[in-house]
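Quick question, first post here. What does this chain look like in 3D?
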Amino acid sequence: MNIPSNLKYTKDHEWVLIEGDTATVGVTDFAQGELGDVVFVEIETEGESLDQGDTFGTIEAVKTVSDLFMPVGGEIEAVNGKLEDAPEVVNSDPYGEGWMVKIKISDAAQADELLSADDYKALIG
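> Answer (accepted):
Ran it through. Tokens below.
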């Protein structure tokens, strides 16, 4: 299982790449494996400001539908439009082309609450 050490993680199985005041968010390799084949990603929150923990979208797989949660509060600046036509890229490249949203972070201190790669490994066992 791939858990890149340069990323932060949430207990909801999302990864976060922090670059300045922008956070790129997606679901982890573990999450996509648990979900199975992703068939639909719905994110209709572009341009909205949401709080940490708020739902920003949903991901639908053959097995289930899961909510996607804000790892940090801020404004959704971009949504990965590629997922509309090719949601399966979440399975094939979760840490690259399968990213979900880019967030302009409103409170940088919230990033300190995220899990390190080692903490995430311990969480999933």
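Strands lie at 8-9, 14-19, 22-27, 38-42, 49-50, 55-61, 65-69, 74-79, 101-105.
The two ends are 11 Å apart (CA to CA).
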